[in-house]
Amino acid sequence: MKLMVIGGGGREHAIIKKLKENPSVEVIYALPGNGGIAADAKCVNIAATDIEGIVAFAAAEKIDFAVVTPDDPLVLGAVDALEAAGIPCFGPEKKAAIIEGSKAFSKDLMRRYNIPTAQYEVFTDRAAALSYLESCDLPIVIKADGLALGKGVIIAQSREEARSAIDTMMVDKKFGHSGERVVIEEFLTGPEVSVLSFTDGETLVPMVSSMDHKRAHDGDAGPNTGGMGTVAPNPYYTPEMAARCMEEIFLPTIRAMKAEGRTFRGCLYFGLMLTPKGPKVIEYNCRFGDPETQVVLPLLESDLLTVMMACRNGTLAGTEVKFSADAACCVVMASDGYPGSYEKGHEITVDGDFDAQLYIAGAKEKDGKLLTSGGRVLGVVATAPALKDAVARAYKQVEKVHFANAYYRRDIGRRALERE
Ligand code: AMP
Ligand code: GLY
User: Fold this and answer.
1) Given this structure, which CATH class describes domain 125-180?
2) What is the whole-number distance in angstroms between the Cα of residue 96 and the centre of ligand 1?
């Protein structure tokens, strides 16, 4: 089979490596991929958002199955365009991807179908938003409605900070159209859990849970990033909690989407907060998480391609989806300065006795060398029967990966281990 994966980060590298385990896979094209993914797939220089270019390539190469991974092509309708051209796809159609593409949509969905989430109001009028702020408790959370590269959420500690967040979104238009509408919501507390799931719209199978580490520095300090590391499973997410989330959140969500005529097929990501009043949805994503995927997929024992095709074909109920009982840890190695400005173009080298998974996120190939080209450069992933050993192994292997100005957190998994 000829496969195509849209995207070019560490998450896509993990997906490609897993897909390759199926012996019927002859070739995988990555659009655009990256210099590290090039070791496992044929990279084609077509941007993930160039839907016309993607469809033309898929038709010319007679692609048998496509996986659309990032949020923006999904929200733009890449799956609809590929399916219309006769290319079967893993991923939600545009009308279902709105569950991530518009926070106002997802909040209203949860309100109408009694799915637990933070109290909120939606505003398109600045004056009304500012006036609402006066009566809110602090801290208060301000979110841009649309996609904002994970940067559209501001937790304001004071009313002044909240007002300035509103103006950043609605007046300065820092997030473009995404900030024309804002959600103002109640601040929740509790441990966060990421649960990715496979769904064909009827059946939903949760993957092993995980814990992201979003802040740049140790001790969860510093600015928010795309994710500096992950562990799986998440020890806060007990079997009792999993059963409760299935009944109160996961199944109600896919049923609500179906009832709205927006049947969701693909990977539905639940960003949950386990509050003192029970689990609540912080956010939905219409795709695999990054870097959650890097710890979840190495624990998948079933064939990923088979499961993805079952999601597309509506046969997930009869398909085995099995995870190992092991634990996994991903340490992201970034360019120092990220998420602010950072240097690029440093050579990446890996010692010969490196013994873990290496998923490349931001690197390009030049004259046979791998050079850094992004903020998050790569993820080092180790698995072991116990989380503490997975964490120790990942950090041991990190020492065998070298590039100038490398930066990584030293405490990935610490909170999870304290909980254990
Ligand atoms: P998001 O971009 O939606 O993933 O939000 C980024 C982060 O902001 C989340 O991972 C949470 O840590 C935090 N956050 C979002 N919404 C809330 C909320 N209502 N209460 C507390 N923290 C929140
Ligand atoms: N790791 C969070 C996300 O993928 O949105």
Assistant:
1) alpha beta
2) 22
> How far is Cα 285 from Cα 297, in angstroms, rounded to an integer?
17
User: What would the DSSP string read from start to end of 232-279?
Assistant: ES-TTS-HHHHHHHIIIIIHHHHHHHHHTT----EEEEEEEEEETTEE
Query: Can you tell me which residue has the tokens 């931001």?
Result: 362
Instruction: Give start and end residues of each alpha helix (H) in 4-120.
Output: 10-19, 51-60, 71-76, 78-84, 94-101, 103-112
Ligand nearest to the CA of 294: 2
* Spatial distance between the Cα atoms of 357 and 68, rounded to a whole number of angstroms: 23
**Tens of pLDDT, residues 77-112:** 999 999 999 999 999 999 999 999 999 999 999 999
Return the CATH number of 192-318, one of 2.60.120.10, 3.30.470.20, 1.10.10.10, 3.10.50.40.
3.30.470.20
Give the CATH fold of the 2-93 domain.
Rossmann fold (3.40.50)
Is residue 350 within 8 A of residue 378, CB to CB? The reply is no
Q: State pLDDT tens for residues 267-309.
A: 999 999 999 999 999 999 999 999 999 999 999 999 999 999 9
* Residue carrying the six token digits 């199978």: 205
Protein residue whose Cα sits closest to atom 9 of ligand 1: 282
The residue whose CA is least distant from atom 16 of ligand 1 is 282
Rounded to an integer, the average pLDDT of 133-149 is: 91
